[in-house]
Design goal:
With about 70 residues, the chain is an alpha+beta fold. The protein has a domain of about 35 residues. Helix content is about 40%, strand content about 30%. The chain contains 2 helices and 4 strands, in the order ββααββ. The strands form 2 sheets. It has a two-stranded antiparallel sheet with strand order 1-2. A hairpin with a 2-residue loop joins strand 3 and strand 4. It is flat. About 10% of the residues have low confidence. It comes from Coptis chinensis. InterPro entries: FDM1-5/IDN2, FDM1-5/IDN2_XH. This is Factor of DNA methylation 1-5/IDN2 domain-containing protein.
Length: about 70
């Protein structure tokens, strides 16, 4: 995204894609009653958005099992 003022670029940036709440809502409706599922879905979606914005966060952990490595989602 680029903002122009009288033909000159004054600010540049990129748009960050937002996280879709629908999969979180589906998962929360399976686990919680419907009266609190939407709140839980919004909380979980916000947590994932924050984590995805953190460049140090890695969504998998490596488990060493002897000579083999296994990746598991966190």
């Amino acid at each position: 995204m680029e903002v122009r003022y009288h033909g000159k670029a004054v600010a540049k940036g990129s748009l960050v894609a937002s996280t879709d709440i629908k999969p979180f809502r589906i998962a929360r409706y399976r686990k919680y009653p419907s009266n609190i599922a939407d709140d839980k879905a919004a909380q979980l979606c916000s947590l994932w958005q924050a984590r995805l914005g953190d460049s140090n966060w890695y969504p998998f952990k490596v488990v060493h099992c002897g000579a083999d490595e296994e990746r598991r989602g966190t």
